């Protein structure tokens, strides 16, 4: 199969279904595939006028919108590299993403102008607001689109060419940019089409932010590849989601357990017409049985799965038919993906034995941007990605996750790496030691808490710590509770025994 890159998708879709509705957004506004393709071409022209060429990073900070997706495909058309920025990041975190990626141009929604103002003063890049008028009266994207007269020729883009750099929090405290190629994103879209049965008649409700690779790679891209319709929502509100499902006859949606719990708890849940809805995918963490039962009572079932940014992100999926029989499993490897379990010495373990989950396939990323040592460490000598997670395969090939080597916390579908938060906490006056752990939470699955030691005479509490961190890291990463202790439990080598802290405070 010859892959020409994401830049070729919309022109090909326009030839086949020019009048088909590609996007529904706002209060029922619609964009056809012909218009979608035209907008992406116009954005490619604007980017080219701003000096963007093959291989240049183009960043986007904004909520779900036609402009978000048109920028992705417009950048791909030039061979440029799309850099989606998490809208929940604090200004220092946004600065790191823009600086580390080397973004040449940043497109952003107007509501982020104030947050970006101090960031843009320290970086050499061109910023374009997605409204009609930008900073200091500069033309925004809306006005620039009206001025485009000529569209540049599309670049030849091989499958190994980078298509996106998606930042994932690092275990060492700095976000790392995972480089996803055109081949990676095509492969994950094909995996979803095969395993989730995505077809052109589907209407996909996008309530999860597109800056997350799960929403982009496993929601938007399969829909575009098959010519389905996307309903774009800027944010999630349970009642609004239920209304959109009924109004647009939504057939598929994805989310995290918290999403589905809020939907099932909404007063309109029992009366909303859900007859069109038949494909539900859930990631981030296991779906609690009470949520499964609430949806089964309405004739609905979940596809669950496992993956990470580095696998674009899908690695495995558990079909609704196997939810009960394989309870606790994250499913089989996706169709074009392989999973194995390895011991510490690298030997491959048989079914039933616990070891590191390792993944191979065309959806596995190319490496970390600008970090050759981290990239080398992420792969085995024979080229398999080392997930850092512990798991086992059963006799039927179903994967079960046993533990997370990286101590990552998953809160409401957001990945939180303790080291990143610990580095910030350690810089607070009076803090002499810190450990951030995840504890169970009824609503979010897990939430972070901080266990700290402090200098004599220093007063540290939850409110002061949260206030100090408010402008430094994303709100979802801020510990929900701060516990001051005399000493942190440590190993002989000085490492904090986090499992002891989790056991001690999980039930509090």
Summarize the structure.
The chain has 508 residues and is an alpha/beta fold. It contains 15 helices and 25 strands.
Helix content: 25-40%
Which class do the helix and strand fractions yield? alpha/beta
Radius of gyration: 23 Å
User: What is the H level of CATH, i.e. the homologous superfamily of one domain?
Assistant: ANL, N-terminal domain
How many separate helices? 15
**Form type:** globular
Q: Enumerate the spans where pLDDT stays under 50 for 5 or more consecutive residues.
A: none
Strand segment count? 25
| Terminal Cα span | 55 Å
- What does the average pLDDT come to? 92
Structure in words:
- 29% of the residues lie in helices and 25% in strands.
- With 508 residues, the chain is of the alpha/beta class.
- The protein has helices at 9-16, 33-49, 66-78, 91-101, 113-120, 141-145, 182-196, 213-226, 238-248, 257-265, 289-296, 372-377, 418-425, 462-469, 498-505, and strands at residues 21-25, 29-32, 57-61, 81-85, 105-108, 126-129, 162-168, 176-181, 203-206, 229-232, 252-255, 279-282, 302-307, 314-318, 332-333, 338-342, 355-360, 367-368, 385-393, 399-404, 409-411, 414-416, 431-441, 445-454, 481-484.
- A hairpin with a 7-residue loop joins β7 (162-168) and β8.
């Amino acid at each position: 199969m010859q892959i020409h890159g994401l830049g070729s998708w919309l022109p090909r879709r326009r030839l086949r279904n020019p009048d088909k509705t590609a996007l529904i957004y706002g209060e029922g506004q619609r964009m056809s595939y012909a218009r979608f393709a035209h907008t992406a071409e116009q954005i490619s022209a604007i980017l080219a006028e701003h000096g963007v060429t093959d291989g240049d990073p183009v960043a986007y900070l904004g909520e779900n919108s036609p402009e978000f997706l048109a920028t992705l495909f417009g950048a791909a058309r030039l061979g440029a590299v799309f850099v989606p920025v998490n809208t929940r990041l604090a200004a220092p975190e946004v600065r790191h993403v823009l600086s580390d990626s080397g973004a040449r141009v940043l497109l952003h929604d107007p509501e982020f102008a104030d947050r970006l103002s101090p960031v843009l003063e320290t970086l050499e890049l061109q910023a374009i607001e997605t409204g009609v008028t930008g900073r200091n009266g500069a033309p925004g994207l809306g006005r620039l689109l009206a001025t485009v007269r000529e569209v540049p020729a599309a670049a030849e883009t091989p499958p190994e060419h980078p298509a996106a750099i998606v930042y994932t929090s690092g275990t060492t405290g700095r976000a790392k940019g995972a480089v996803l190629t055109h081949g990676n994103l095509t492969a994950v879209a094909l995996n979803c089409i095969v395993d989730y049965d995505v077809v052109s008649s589907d209407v996909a409700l996008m309530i999860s932010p597109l800056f997350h690779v799960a929403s982009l790679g496993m929601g938007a891209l399969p829909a575009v590849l098959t010519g389905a319709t996307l309903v774009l929502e800027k944010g999630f509100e349970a009642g609004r989601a239920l209304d959109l499902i009924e109004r647009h006859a939504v057939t598929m949606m994805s989310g995290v357990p918290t999403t589905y719990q809020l939907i099932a708890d909404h007063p309109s849940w029992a009366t909303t017409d859900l007859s069109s809805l038949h494909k539900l995918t859930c990631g981030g963490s296991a779906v609690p049985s009470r949520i499964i039962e609430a949806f089964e009572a309405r004739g609905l079932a979940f596809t669950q799965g496992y993956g990470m940014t580095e696998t674009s992100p899908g690695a495995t999926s558990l079909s609704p038919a196997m939810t009960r029989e394989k309870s606790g499993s994250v499913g089989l490897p996706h169709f074009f993906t392989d999973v194995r379990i390895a011991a510490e010495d690298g030997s491959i373990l048989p079914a039933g034995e616990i070891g590191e989950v390792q993944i191979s396939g065309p959806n596995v990323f190319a490496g970390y941007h600008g970090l050759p040592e981290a990239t080398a460490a992420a792969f085995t000598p024979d080229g398999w990605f080392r997930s850092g997670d512990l798991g086992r395969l059963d006799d039927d090939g179903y994967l079960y996750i046993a533990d997370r080597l990286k101590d990552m916390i998953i809160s409401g579908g957001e990945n939180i790496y303790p080291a990143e938060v610990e580095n910030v906490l350690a810089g607070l006056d009076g803090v002499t030691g810190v450990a951030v752990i995840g504890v169970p939470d009824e609503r979010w699955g897990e939430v972070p808490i901080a266990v700290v030691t402090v200098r004599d005479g220093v007063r540290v509490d939850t409110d002061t710590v949260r206030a100090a961190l408010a402008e430094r890291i994303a709100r979802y990463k801020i510990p929900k509770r701060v516990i001051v202790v005399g000493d942190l439990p440590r190993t002989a080598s000085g490492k904090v025994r986090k499992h002891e802290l989790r056991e001690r405070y999980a039930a509090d």
